[in-house]
Design a protein that fits this description.
Helix content is 7%, strand content 26%. The protein has 124 residues and is mainly beta. Strands 1-3-4-2-5 form a 5-stranded antiparallel sheet, with no helix packed on it. The radius of gyration is 15 Å and the shape is elongated.
């Protein structure tokens, strides 16, 4: 699904679950995926690794066409800045990248100077 999210996409989020500590990451990619459950770790079908995901409230309704729940997933790909600090995203970031420190339930993550320009050490 799309990585361009609106607050309306996130109205039933209850909790953000981190599988890795996001404090040391300049950015994570966020996407809205369809999953069969409201809670628990969703299946992951991308290269790279899942960093976190959201869980939904009991009032979240499934998509009427697919019967699936829409949940955010946070992830990094093998060529992202954390794995290749001097690679493609040494400066700049992918379009779906946001600063993990700005991620809260029901709020779209934000782009910051750290997520878009480079790590805190290169900004100093």
């Amino acid at each position: 699904m799309s990585s361009l999210l609106t607050p309306g996409d996130l109205t039933h989020e209850d909790k953000v679950v981190w599988l890795e500590d996001p404090e040391d990451l300049d950015y994570v990619r966020q996407a809205l995926d369809k999953t069969p459950r409201r809670r628990g770790k969703p299946r992951y079908h991308r290269d790279g690794r899942m960093i976190g995901f959201t869980e939904l409230s009991d009032t979240a309704e499934a998509d009427p066409d697919s019967g699936l729940q829409k949940r955010r997933v946070f992830y990094l790909l093998p060529h992202d800045r954390d794995a290749e600090p001097n690679g493609l995203y040494r400066e700049g970031a992918p379009g779906e990248a946001v600063d993990p420190r700005t991620i809260q339930p029901r709020q779209v993550g934000k782009k910051t100077a750290r997520s878009q320009r480079g790590s805190a050490t290169t900004l100093a």
